[in-house]
Amino acid sequence: xxxxxxxxxxxxxxxxxxxxxxxxxxxxxxxxxxxxxxxxxxxxxxxxxxxxxxxxxxxxxxxxxxxxxxxxxxxxxxxxxxxxxxxxxxxxxxxxxxxxxxxxxxxxxxxxxxxxxxxxxxxxxxxxxxxxxxxxxxxxxxxxxxxxxxxxxxxxxxxxxxxxxxxxxxxxxxxxxxxxxxxxxxxxxxxxxxxxxxxxxxxxxxxxxxxxxxxxxxxxxxxxxxxxxxxxxxxxxxxxxxxxxxxxxxxxxxxxxxxxxxxxxxxxxxxxxxxxxxxxxxxxxxxxxxxxxxxxxxxxxxxxxxxxxxxxxxxxxxxxxxxxxxxxxxxxxxxxxxxxxxxxxxxxxxxxxxxxxxxxxxxxxxxxxxxxxxxxxxxxxxxxxxxxxxxxxxxxxxxxxxxxxxxxxxxxxxxxxxxxxxxxxxxxxxxxxxxxxxxxxxxxxxxxxxxxxxxxxxxxxxxxxxxxxxxxxxxxxxxxxxxxxxxxxxxxxxxxxxxxxxxxxxxxx
Length: 509
Hints:
By secondary structure, the chain is α+β, with helices and mostly antiparallel strands. Helices cover 38% and strands 15% of the residues. The chain is built from 18 helices and 18 strands. It has helices spanning 2-8, 17-20, 22-31, 74-86, 97-109, 124-133, 156-165, 186-194, 212-215, 235-238, 257-267, 274-309, 353-364, 388-402, 409-415, 417-427, 436-439, 479-490; strands at residues 90-94, 115-119, 136-140, 169-175, 182-183, 200-204, 230-233, 246-250, 316-317, 336-337, 341-345, 370-372, 375-379, 444-448, 461-463, 468-471, 495-496, 503-507. It has a seven-stranded mixed beta sheet, with helices on both faces. The protein has a four-stranded antiparallel beta sheet with strand order 9-11-13-12. Helix 3 (22-31) runs antiparallel to helix 12 (274-309), helix 4 runs parallel beside helix 12 and helix 7 (156-165) packs parallel to helix 8 (186-194). The longest helix has 36 residues, at 274-309. The radius of gyration is 24 Å and the shape is globular. 47% of the residues are buried.
């Protein structure tokens, strides 16, 4: 890794391996001491489970390797390095993904049964935490961009209005950035909430790269810098860390760190993976040594991409091209946007998102993150090679040149599905008959669509990706919800957790 970094950044100061991968070096040193392991794991650092796995420093909690749930040595030092890098007062390593951090962080915000304010476009893990906490949830439904059919950002004005309607709220929970890269006004929202001494938790799983280092390269400010009390991130999405790694950050005194640790004892495995934790510390070390240069080069690559695609008309790229919008136009419902996400609309070129993704895969050997209706999402990171975005831009230019002058009318209708479904979703106003927690353990039944209106939903229904429920346990099934589900199924959309067989999960009457 060190050699690769030096080749990528020859102008950077050369550093020894242990300067950027401190925890890994400590673990390797312990493994080299010759202690015979009469302890876990079962491979005993002798039998490699599969080629390439770092089994030599896959250890357990023994003297010298520390204990994640009571860190006082090398893991404590590693988490302090990461907290300092990210601007947090405290940081906890997570090896169960951001899901673990959301479960623990949300339950630490307020006492069980409290009233909380939550953005409706949060990930299903947030819903699970809300249900387990027995919270009374008041939803904020984000606006929908009319052209793109995706959720926009939530404003401080929306949150202030919701708090006036629900003065008993004890915490506010938001997602920023969204899966598509849209950010909410976290700084303004924190100002509104903190004036009432209400803590703010931000699911920033897709924004671990938003930090003071990247801000200097032109990226927007992250949730910690904007004042959020608890922030959960997934470095593996956009930074050099292994899949399943995540971070839980705390700043300020509105949330008790002891409550967070109590909840982490419940939701985080008692056998954390040392290779995963070493990758988190390694990510911190790489950013500490090379971060400023890496973020600058990432911004340069994005800038070249923008310059190449800015005049595309048949292929629209959010905030970058299409229909004369201009590269830097700020859309009304999404004034803040993460430039690291590239959201492409294939409809004007006469294609569905799946067709465009297949073309990029088969002809240009590029695998995109997501397709949904007419949209394709390409995720970038500071680890992309120098020419990757240039090749993507060139591919899109070639695809546009080969596209018909006018998209077929049938294709236009078909490709309006994402926006149509999202508009229907944005028009829904969830009506909770009972708390999610009250549904657990009650008898349920599968009810045909034609008989489901007015019934109480007993499960979650959501599109995946991005895993945002449009029906949750305890909510009334309305005519609008049924229309939205029917439209989605007619268009071939896959609905997870129910509805595929023409029935919906309901409480038994």
